[in-house]
Write a structure and sequence with these properties.
- The protein is an alpha/beta fold.
- Helix content is 40%, strand content 20%.
- It is built from eleven helices and ten strands.
- It has helices at 13-19, 25-28, 33-38, 41-51, 71-77, 112-124, 138-152, 164-175, 197-203, 217-229, 255-267, and strands spanning 78-82, 88-95, 99-104, 127-132, 156-162, 182-186, 191-192, 195-196, 208-213, 236-241.
- An eight-stranded mixed beta sheet has the order 1-2-4-3-5-6-9-10, with helices on both faces.
- The protein is globular, with a radius of gyration of 17 Å.
Amino acid sequence: MAASRTPAPVVSVCAAVLLAGLTLAGCSGEGGKNDAAAKSPDASAAVKKAEAGAPAPAPPANGDDFGCLTPEQARAGSIVFKSAAGAPTGGFLTGSGNTGIVLAHQADGNVCQWKDKAVELGKTGFRVLAVNSTTGDETAEIEGAATALRTEGAWKLLLMGASKGGTAALQAAAGMPLKPDAVVALSAAEKYGSMDALAAARTLKVPVLYMAGDQDGTFAAAARELSAASAGAPEDRLVSARGTAAHGVAMLGASDNWDTVLAFLKKYCT
């Protein structure tokens, strides 16, 4: 379900690029292939199908703060949406614009792990939904979040996940009826529980950015193997963060890593 609120207007990151006289090759490339699809009757039907059934329960009157949101953020952005499996799922919705980003957190975190970056992305011109994963079906949560963003007005969609969330984002990207325009996987494991990101990567047909610290043990190796498996992706970018064992979201504390991720996201915005 969509949040009932009126977001403050922001300048789209893509509009800013256009004003600077630059072209948006990414949005007219592989990502652009979904533009018509996202506005098509089939896409509308997919959204309606995901919304079918009993509505998800509303969040508390003043919003769920998840232990980290300010009262204002909770009132304005705390939502409950349905996962693709129909389970009520909490999340933090912020920002505006025609490009939505789903953020999936690590096994050791909750929505708060992404809060600061969600706010930053929202101010940059994206419509962002950070998922609070509690249902045990991460891929269904991501797909439900994608539907919620499309209902809010996002007709381009990006997925970004860290560690377990990265594994889930890759599997969701490969299996969703209406594919995302790009995926970012930070320190993603090849497999997590019943999720198999390596199998998903072999069928991935959308741009993907893999990032892992070069000292992050098995996750550094996993990033290389996932990238090697993504032969069908129109852009398959592998970034090894040098000299660090920082994991998942923690890697984005380094400005060069965050700049790399942000540039990739902007490449596939509207």
